[in-house]
Every structure is written in C-alpha cells, then in structure tokens.
Amino acid sequence: MKKYLFAFVLSIGVSAPAFADKVILKPYQSGDWPALVKSANGSPIAIHFWGVTCPSCVKEMPLWGNFLKSHPSSKVIFVQIDDVSAQSMQKMLTKAGLEKANNYYVPAPFDERLRYEIDPKWHGETPTTILIDKNGKASRKTGLIDFQKLQSVLKVGS
C-alpha cells in the first residue's frame, strides 16, 4: 500500500506544474475606460498598454513583473492591444512574471474610437502608460517607463 501511495504522490508532484496558475485575461472594450479608472478607488493607478509584437514591450514587461514583485500593493492594470492569440499573450505575461496581474486584452481591432475614449491625443503607440493620480488627473507616458518615477507617482514602498 505504501508503494502505491508513494507512486501516487510522486505522480502528483511530477504533474503539478501543469496545474500552475493560468493567466486570466479579461476583455477590454469600448466603454470600459471609466470603470478601469474607477477601480483605483481614489488611489493612484497606472494603466499600461502593451503589445506582444512591440520590441520595447518585450524588453519592458519583465521589468514590470519585477516592479510588482517588489511593490505588490501598487495598482497597475495591463491592457494588451495587439491582434494575437491568447496563448501568445499568456506566454509573454507568464515569462514576465505577470500571470497574477490585472490583465486585459482588446478582442477587436484597437481602433480610433477606442483610443479616443482613453486619450484623444494618443495614436495607439506602445508601450504607453497612463498614470492617474488620487484626484483622477491623468498623464500619458509613451515609451519605456522610469520605474523610480512610477514608484513615486504610485506612492508605493514608503
């Protein structure tokens, strides 16, 4: 009996990685912007727009993973805007250590109307981070983020 129990425990241990946390991707659609902003409940928040096919995003996403690991109480939302498979998104998020982050994806083409709702002056380039302070004032940063400044804006780790 002990041999069988040991074999069963061993087989569970070997197959455990198959049951690892899966990335949860929520759809982001027209009309969702006010709800994302409200989700901060009066706290500063960063909403980061990225793409699987964006070379700068590929380089930066692991830095976001490190930032959130070091500052788990920070409020950050990720929105993937490329027209790619869910598997591609999940792979990149997992590799960056962001599988437990607040992840969204745009299920339809990221068109002008959707961008305009977020920021009328934004043309959809990635990476782009919209920082919203505790008073609801938004500022947009296109390109790689300065994580020291982000820490200051989000007032984390102090």
What does this structure look like?
- The chain is 39% helix and 18% strand.
- The chain has 158 residues and is of the alpha/beta class.
- The chain has one domain: Glutaredoxin, CATH 3.40.30.10.
- It has a six-stranded mixed β-sheet, covered by helices on one side.
- The radius of gyration is 18 Å and the shape is globular.
Please render the helix and strand layout as text.
Layout: H1 2-15, E1 25-27, H2 33-38, E2 45-50, H3 55-70, E3 76-80, H4 86-95, E4 102-105, H5 112-118, E5 128-132, E6 138-142, H6 147-154
Parallel strand pairs: 1-4, 2-3, 3-4
Antiparallel strand pairs: 2-5, 5-6
Concise structural overview:
With 158 residues, the chain is an alpha/beta fold. Helices cover 39% and strands 18% of the residues. A six-stranded mixed β-sheet has the order 1-4-3-2-5-6, covered by helices on one side.
Distance between the termini: 55 Å
- Judging from the principal axes of the Cα atoms, what is the shape? globular
**Biggest sheet, open or closed, and with what strands and sense?**
6 strands, mixed
The CATH superfamily name is Glutaredoxin
Proportion of residues in helical segments: 25-40%
Strand content: 15-25%
Count of DSSP H/I helices: 6
Q: How many distinct folded domains?
A: 1
CATH architecture: 3-Layer(aba) Sandwich
Mean pLDDT: 85
Instruction: Evaluate the radius of gyration.
Output: 18 Å
Uncertain runs: 1-20
What order do the SSEs take from the amino end to the carboxyl end, as H and E?
A: HEHEHEHEHEEH
Strand order of the largest sheet: 1-4-3-2-5-6
